[in-house]
Design goal:
This protein is of the alpha/beta class. Helices cover 39% and strands 13% of the residues. The strands form two sheets. A six-stranded parallel β-sheet has the order 6-5-4-7-8-9, sandwiched between helices. It has a three-stranded mixed β-sheet with strand order 1-2-3, with helices on one face. Helix 4 (96-104) packs across helix 5 and helix 6 (127-138) runs antiparallel to helix 7 (141-165). The model is unreliable at 88-98 and 103-107 (pLDDT under 50).
Length: 296
C-alpha cells in the first residue's frame, strides 16, 4: 500500500537484499513492476557494483569497476581490515556494561567498577553469574533459557575451535586451501546460490580432486558459534580429504603453498588472484571474470 500510495517508481537498495524484510521488499517490487537497483560496495575506495538484481551485480566484470585507473596489480599488499577477529566473549555478558550502568546503578557507580563487573561477566568461567544477571535485567525466563542454550552452543563451538587451533601437522604436498566464510553473511546466504552450505562445496570439491590431494580448511577468524554446530565439524571430519588448520595460520602462506584456492565468494579468492594463484569459486563472486578464477 505504501508503494502504491506514494506512486513509487523505483526502489534502490544500498546493499544486496539478504536480511529477510529487504528480500520481501525486493520480491514485491518485482511482482508489481517497480524498478529496482541494487548496490554493493567494493573493497576499493569510491568503487561499487550495481545492477537491477543481485544476479546482475557483477555481470559487467571487475575490469569495468576500475575503469583502467585501478587494477588488481596495484594492490600487492592488501589491508585485510575485513578479517580482524572478534573477541570470544560470553554471549550472556554482551552489552552488560551499558545495562548495568543505566538500569541498576543509574550512573552512581564509578565507570571503572561497572566496567570491571562487566568484564568479569564476559568471562565464560562466570557463566551462571551472567545468566542470573540476564534474568534480573530482563525479567524473562524464556529469554534466560534461550541465552543459556546459546551460551552452551558457544562453549561447545569454542571447545572444538581450541582443539583445531592446537593442531600441529605438516602441510601435504598437494592441497587445496579452503577458507571458511563468516556466517551468517550475504557472501554465502545471497551470493552462495546452491552452495550456501559450505560443507556441500567441500564435498563437491573432494569429488573431483586427484588421488592423494587434500583440502585444508581454515576457520574464519571472526566466526562465532552460529552456523558452526558440532554436526558441521563432524560432517567435514568425515570427509577423508579434509584437514583442519589453526585459524591463526597465515592465510597468505597457505595461498602461496596451495595448488589452488577454493571459496564460495570470499575475499581469499581475490587475495589468491593478486598473488598469481588460481581460484575455484562456488558462488557469484565479484572477481569471477578476472583471469585465474574458475567457477565450479
Amino acid at each position: 500500500d505504501i508503494l502504491k500510495d506514494l506512486a513509487v517508481e523505483a526502489v534502490w537498495f544500498a546493499r544486496p537484499p539478504h536480511l529477510g524484510l529487504d528480500n520481501l521488499l525486493f520480491d514485491l517490487c518485482k511482482t508489481i513492476g517497480i524498478q529496482t537497483l541494487v548496490f554493493q560496495q567494493s573493497l576499493f575506495p569510491s568503487r561499487f557494483f550495481f545492477g537491477t538484481s543481485v544476479d546482475s551485480l557483477f555481470e559487467h566484470g571487475a575490469d569495468k569497476l576500475f575503469n583502467n585507473d585501478v587494477t588488481l596489480e596495484d594492490v600487492t599488499n592488501p589491508n585485510l581490515f575485513y578479517m580482524r577477529p572478534q573477541s570470544r566473549r560470553n554471549a550472556l555478558g554482551r552489552d552488560f556494561y551499558e545495562k548495568f550502568r543505566s538500569r541498576m546503578v543509574r550512573g552512581s557507580l564509578p565507570a571503572a567498577v561497572a566496567r570491571k563487573v562487566a568484564n568479569m561477566l564476559h568471562d565464560r568461567r562466570y557463566f551462571f553469574c551472567a545468566a542470573l544477571a540476564k534474568y534480573f535485567f530482563h525479567y524473562s525466563v524464556p529469554l534466560l533459557l534461550r541465552e543459556m542454550a546459546n551460551a552452551h552452543s558457544a562453549r561447545e563451538y569454542y571447545k572444538v575451535a581450541a582443539e583445531i587451533d592446537a593442531l600441529k601437522e605438516k602441510l601435504p604436498d598437494n592441497f587445496v586451501y579452503f577458507a571458511l566464510h563468516l556466517q551468517p553473511e550475504a557472501t554465502t546466504s545471497e551470493f552462495g546460490g546452491t552452495f550456501q552450505d559450505q560443507a556441500n562445496a567441500i564435498d563437491a570439491l573432494e569429488s573431483v580432486l586427484p588421488d592423494g590431494w587434500k583440502i585444508l580448511v581454515k576457520e574464519n577468524p571472526k566466526q562465532g558459534y552460529l552456523y558452526r554446530g558440532q554436526k558441521f565439524y563432524e560432517r567435514l571430519s568425515a570427509n577423508p580429504s579434509v584437514r583442519f588448520v589453526p585459524r591463526d595460520t597465515s592465510s597468505a602462506s597457505l595461498v602461496q603453498r596451495a595448488r589452488l584456492t577454493a571459496t564460495i565468494t570470499g575475499t581469499v579468492g581475490y587475495e589468491a588472484l593478486v598473488a598469481g594463484k588460481p581460484v575455484i569459486i562456488f558462488g557469484n563472486a565479484w572477481y569471477k571474470s578476472v583471469p585465474g578464477a574458475c567457477t565450479f
